[in-house]
């Protein structure tokens, strides 16, 4: 009887025990209540695990009650949940700044807490909010130490990225690495990007000779394992307009001012009866469009099984220009395929292929004679059209010159087209040879073809420099290719419990080659764009009308890196790269680029204690040498690429001549980078602070087209000066970034970020014989406006200092003579400073009157989420940058900005704006009168969105439906008078590739960046 009773009790307990194990079905949601696929779900202290599918669902079999399940996902805090029922719902908290987040550092990754270099990361969430047309725009104001400037607001125009200042007169832009291969950042579809990682210091030395200007690592989106097919569609449409107009004189104001100017010059009044002219023509209104359309759409299909992941995407962008409409339009289409497969436990393969096509049309911009230059200078008294409906001709009088024409006619008679097709990508293989050692290989490639056509219509503007006596068409075809092959091994091991070592060793082979051909044909049939083709032109050329080039350059590199940490708190890294390049002579082909980084996680020390205020504190430092070889190929040789004309049998014959003078001593440009930084988290990780002090010294600058003695043959037909290692520039500064993130409740969260960068730029030496390099132009026929010189910022403006205006003749008589500047001074003229004190105002008194490099840049960003509503604001500021006002033609009859209404008209009337006169003055030479403080604060992006309750949309098979509206480039606060204080466009160097910072910041009438109003939606299926 007792045994039966005992057996019954055991059976009851066994039954009860088995009843406490059950299958767990669950759903994982993000902070906004949307399903979260790809989350790792693991039973604690067990090998049992799974991942959530497309709907955020998962299932675990036979889980005992009371078991702890761990949920982890990059970008979210890891959570542990104790099982108490068969069904659970988990809502994960956002933790985008988690210290466990993996950061790409080049040929490998590191946890964020272990990174010892100056590294910044932008994720896809930021890109979703900013909606940049070009990826570069997402870096402005979001990353400390990075400044992005526009060369033009025209659709498809290039943007300049500068990391920690301007260091060279040649190429200053960073190198983009897309999924491990050299690529072009500007051609990517922003929605294809998962993360952007910026390497700002010696951490980038692993890339050797291409790393001096910084490295931008792009990781594109991949599908997630064990997830159902996910379809994401994003689209927005909008319209654009000019963000500002310049206040010009209307017809009546212009006529009255011109009368005064003529009277002061002793001439008859041009408008004896100025009444009845009214406001006249607003030429800016005529050329600046309103409600100019923009449309962007993209779709992504992604997913994966246990072994395979995939992501397929496509995008379409169509944008017209606010100046010239379709005549300055841009169209871009992209398609992308990314696949990953685990062939076995040891073999993994991946591929990512991107196709890009764009078509761009342009108008004359950013220079004397540009469309906007003409819109600002044509008087308001002229009508756009004459009585016959034709474009009004601007007369070629002395007062209006030969370059000012009707801007509407200029747009109408502009014909060009440029299309570009590119296929790029990579194929990679990882082979795990044994525990801890993985061998990786990758082949990256870029191949592109482009065609351009420009038609010069036979036309007369009435005796202007733009008159075309003979119609012509110029066509170009270019083919560019490159490939890279990377092979490297990574070994990870642990010695004992506390010593962690990671070693990487490999090599890279890189080859770049291509060719171009161009030709010009004359006498286009019917003088029409429709017949503008070389095959149809029959006119004979009077000079060489063909051109082109062929190039082939290669680079062989070896690299190694060793990383060590003790208990995760003492961190060391050393790396070296050896590069050999065909760009340099036999004695200078090879360069070595070593670097060292270290870090100390102070918060892991026992003496730090369990601080409730300070959660994480790390000190780090780095020092290394990085290189720059971004110059044309064979810079050390002299090639037959110059154009020349010879006399044979008494006739002129076109031919070729020696081009660039050789420089066999040409060698690498080197950047010595030092950085010391601090990473701090306080208040339960709600506040994150990053601070860096850096010194970047660039030696042996590769400067093209250095003037040398005529004895060496520069003056010969077709010959050009050589490229030299001719200078040293230092940038030093401080970066500071602080972020605050708070989740007040499940319905309300806030994120605020602020960053600021202070930079001092100084040229240490210029070794070209004269110690000075000049570039940039001001006005017509004046000396170069900008200089590179030791002791000054690179590209500083070189001109005269002013000291107000002469108020009477006595002041003129008491002041040193200004006759050497072109004319004797009179009351109402600008008074220049005798800088050298020799009693005469002449060219020896020129000095530094400003520079285009900002002293500080900063960004302020805020994101707010309340229930289904999200709000974001991104802003940027630049402090201390100057610009030269050069869009005003100094011709007497050209129109003027309305600030001239405050001109000097008699003693005491003004001490800032000089008198107007047709007589000779020295008021038009380059001086600080034309240099303005272009500091500004810009609201770059405001967006507000609403996500419809997923419970409603999921009934239609939609997991997410978000509607939003926003404004890009909403408003710019500045005292600068021009269109865009943030624009910077330097002259192209004679190498035809790089743009010089010497001459940047001179405003010829920049094509303004448009204000864009957007309405869009995001749909996930």
TrEMBL record:
Keyword Signal: yes
Record bears the keyword Membrane: yes
Record family assignment: Belongs to the TonB-dependent receptor family.
SUPFAM superfamilies assigned to the protein according to its UniProt record, in alphabetical order: Carboxypeptidase regulatory domain-like (SSF49464), Porins (SSF56935)
Localisation per UniProt entry: Cell outer membrane
GO cellular component, one term: cell outer membrane
Name this protein carries in UniProt: TonB-dependent receptor
Start and end residues of each TonB-dependent receptor-like beta-barrel domain: 376-970
InterPro entries in the cross-refs: Beta-barrel_TonB, Beta-barrel_TonB_sf, CarboxyPept-like_regulatory, Plug_dom, Plug_dom_sf, TonB-dep_OMP_SusC/RagA, TonB-dep_OMP_SusC/RagA_CS, TonB-dep_rcpt-like
